[in-house]
Amino acid sequence: MSWISVSEARNASAVGRSIEVRGWVRTRRDSKAGFSFIEVNDGSCLGNLQVVADGSLANYSDEILKLTAGCSLVASGTLVASPAAGQASELRAESVRLIGTCDPETYPLQKKRHSLEKLREWSHLRGRTNTIGAVMRLRSRICDSIHRFFQEQGFCYLHTPIITASDCEGAGELFRVTTLNLDQLTRGGRAVDYSQDFFGKSAFLTVSGQLEGETYACALSKVYTFGPTFRAENSNTSRHLAEFWMVEPEVAFYDLSDNMRLAEAFLKRILRDVLATCGEDMAFFDQHIQPGLSERLAKVIEQPFQHMTYTDAIRVLAGSGEPFEYPVAWGTDLQAEHERYLTEKHVGGPLILTDYPASIKPFYMRLSDDEKTVAAMDVLVPGVGEIIGGSQREDRLDTLLARMATQGLNEADYWWYTDLRRFGSAPHAGFGLGLERMVQFASGMANIRDVVPFPRYPGNAEF
Amino acid sequence: MSWISVSEARNASAVGRSIEVRGWVRTRRDSKAGFSFIEVNDGSCLGNLQVVADGSLANYSDEILKLTAGCSLVASGTLVASPAAGQASELRAESVRLIGTCDPETYPLQKKRHSLEKLREWSHLRGRTNTIGAVMRLRSRICDSIHRFFQEQGFCYLHTPIITASDCEGAGELFRVTTLNLDQLTRGGRAVDYSQDFFGKSAFLTVSGQLEGETYACALSKVYTFGPTFRAENSNTSRHLAEFWMVEPEVAFYDLSDNMRLAEAFLKRILRDVLATCGEDMAFFDQHIQPGLSERLAKVIEQPFQHMTYTDAIRVLAGSGEPFEYPVAWGTDLQAEHERYLTEKHVGGPLILTDYPASIKPFYMRLSDDEKTVAAMDVLVPGVGEIIGGSQREDRLDTLLARMATQGLNEADYWWYTDLRRFGSAPHAGFGLGLERMVQFASGMANIRDVVPFPRYPGNAEF
């Protein structure tokens, strides 16, 4: 008798097969007619398989009538067309074997609905809930879609280093990585000697793989990274994590227009895949998390993304009459409230902002001919705000060195990065997409801590 | 005129098309008849596209005759069938535009061949060499194959945390992650107060996502992680990195036999994909790195993997008459020399060793009925040794707690891990594959530092 997933067993085409499923009890309901309905879930999909256990089964009163939520079991029998609404099949059980018990007195996931906040305390168990299970399947599907999109176009998947001695943004708060004995430091009274540390100098967790990604784009033309990145910022918000995953494509011979086209095609591909393949989970989000979600996403796919320069955006914001908390003026960075206004109210869909002031952007972005703006782009989407940030990179050695000097960066620290502009320099561009923001956008989940298996934020590295 | 990759342009089916390529000069050769052959590479494949530039081009003497290795250019024209051996097509150029110069006096990658050791000093440029370019394309292909294998079978891709307060192996040397000001520590003279650190306690870089992976396997049934892992070991060998990528599938209701089947199918799938899709790069490795490689890999795919218990392996080793450096006795861990003997000389192919002594394996492996061995498995392959390590996990709460006590682990630190055995416990199993070892196995590359873009090892976090 072959073991199949609940997802497969629930398919109408499986009716008639003799099979086995293995999973966990969600609920048990006993009929007065002397048999029981057991809802079994194995996480392969949102829905449960209804297992009908007849009172004639040998262990019916000893085991089956004692099954509670969370018990693991193996059930086998024949799949039959279900008379019940909303399910194509159910399992007429020939055997139901209890594998692991689950004490209802102590099991945290009782039938009652828990808040997402409460579930975070049980991050080791919350994957068993409908919401978090659906989020994790969606997240996996998005990851797959990301790899498909780039691999199909001949991009090389690149692992840039997690531990690094360089700081991509020239700023940013970093986590130090060390094997120095901190207790010893408190005894010595001497200065910290990083030459004794594991890497022979100060080392940190990466905030972006971009600079290293550029080195390989200038060798293999099309590359993308997809890995964890880190921010040691003391941000206790629903939008920030200390550890999150980022996708960063980088392409040689691309300019800003190519880059914008790639970003739009990329986002649309992910949404198309999600809508096409995560039907049941997406319907769940639409019903329980964010009504109207699927329709909004479908609209994003259909429309061409709007484009607007930063300068025009400032004009729009200044003339909007909206009571913004932060004032709007050319040369200041846009706040979340401004981005949300532009994408949600002004455009009502995705918006790509371009040509930001050089003074508020990192040294590596290409200076435009006006010498005031850089070839930067941010993609804003309703409900999330900035989801993608990118730019064409400065490929001219002299301009790059001048920008580094302006921003107080030490040229010697970036010898390898500037080398790319010495030896066969080429225009190139790229962007970064935060995976968690993308999962939020696609699911409607409000808090970023609920779209990652084990969130890391100030004060929390549990599990 | 459409921009296509060198890989596409070199295809016989592209002959006749008017196209543009963008890339870097590998070599230039001038004919006495007044035209030049420029070998152009863009990293999309190992081979170059031969661009034929006629002396009649406007910039022929000013630019084309000055092109040197490493210059970037854009060439357009018509692809024609090439009369030269070994290439289907060549580009009859209508235009060759120099984009970025490359001073031959200072460019490190001259025509002469550099040692792989030397190339590591230029890790930002070495992707432009045949060997490292081929390795990175292969690595990307292997990653893709890994995702394909699991996604096609309904596994959920899971991101387990990189920063963690738990130590999976109960041992292992860890990198500390901190935002404490170390300089301040040397002044205070007080004990280190980790409650003031970012996460409110000591935090480290993960050595494995397994324990967290188990939590989601006990919710979604089939999961796999694929992310960076870390070892702060002072190992300066050709087999160890401080930072490397690991794939870790974990499946609920799997026993050791299921696990072995999965591991064998997994390795074979990767090799099949590599041989089917990386033809040119594999031929390069076969010719320049490890003669006979492709044939050896093909043999691995054809044969069923051999199985042997640890106890039998000890018997084989003790009776082998080989002059091992480390003595062989039941209860001691196998050394690389033993593993290599078993897989290379005794079996002559992949070998799965099972049922290791409990005393030399971690607490989470399932204790067998003999109470002396655990349901562990190591997959050994010729040329590399151990490439996969895995086990069925201990799913019985009492046995697990007893093993933890024996190994001196603090039960309270693992409250969430043991919870999985309290609430609907189920048999489950999984394994880990080191990506870099897999790339070495598939490419024949001798040093692990040459199969990762930017290697991290003691004293080195450059780039």
List keywords for this structure.
homodimer, 5-stranded mixed barrel, alpha+beta, elongated, 463 residues
Structure write-up:
The structure is a homodimer of 463-residue chains. Chain A is of the alpha+beta class and 463 residues long. Chain A contains 13 helices and 17 strands. The first copy, chain A, has helices spanning 6-9, 116-120, 130-152, 182-188, 210-220, 256-277, 279-289, 293-302, 310-318, 336-347, 397-406, 415-422, 435-443; strands at 2-3, 18-30, 35-41, 49-54, 72-81, 89-100, 156-158, 163-164, 176-178, 204-205, 222-230, 243-252, 306-309, 351-357, 373-381, 385-392, 428-434. In chain A, the strands form three sheets. An eight-stranded mixed sheet of chain A has the order 7-11-12-17-16-15-14-13, sandwiched between helices. In chain A, strands 2-3-4-6-5 form a five-stranded mixed barrel. The two termini of chain A are 37 Å apart. At the A-B interface, strand 2, helix 3, strand 7, strand 8 and strand 9 of A face strand 2, helix 3, strand 7, strand 8 and strand 9 of B. Strand 9 of chain A pairs antiparallel with strand 9 (176-178) of chain B.
Q: In what order do the strands lie side by side in the largest sheet of chain A?
A: 7-11-12-17-16-15-14-13
The number of helical runs of chain A is 13
Structural class of chain A: alpha+beta
Helix content of chain A: 25-40%
Beta-strand residue percentage of chain A: 15-25%
The quaternary structure here is homodimer
Task: Lay out the secondary structure.
The structure is a homodimer of 463-residue chains.
Chain A: E1 2-3, H1 6-9, E2 18-30, E3 35-41, E4 49-54, E5 72-81, E6 89-100, H2 116-120, H3 130-152, E7 156-158, E8 163-164, E9 176-178, H4 182-188, E10 204-205, H5 210-220, E11 222-230, E12 243-252, H6 256-277, H7 279-289, H8 293-302, E13 306-309, H9 310-318, H10 336-347, E14 351-357, E15 373-381, E16 385-392, H11 397-406, H12 415-422, E17 428-434, H13 435-443
Parallel strand pairs in A: 1-2, 4-6, 7-11, 13-14
Antiparallel strand pairs in A: 2-3, 2-5, 3-4, 5-6, 8-10, 11-12, 12-17, 14-15, 15-16, 16-17
Helix pairs in contact in A: 3-6, 3-7, 3-13, 6-8
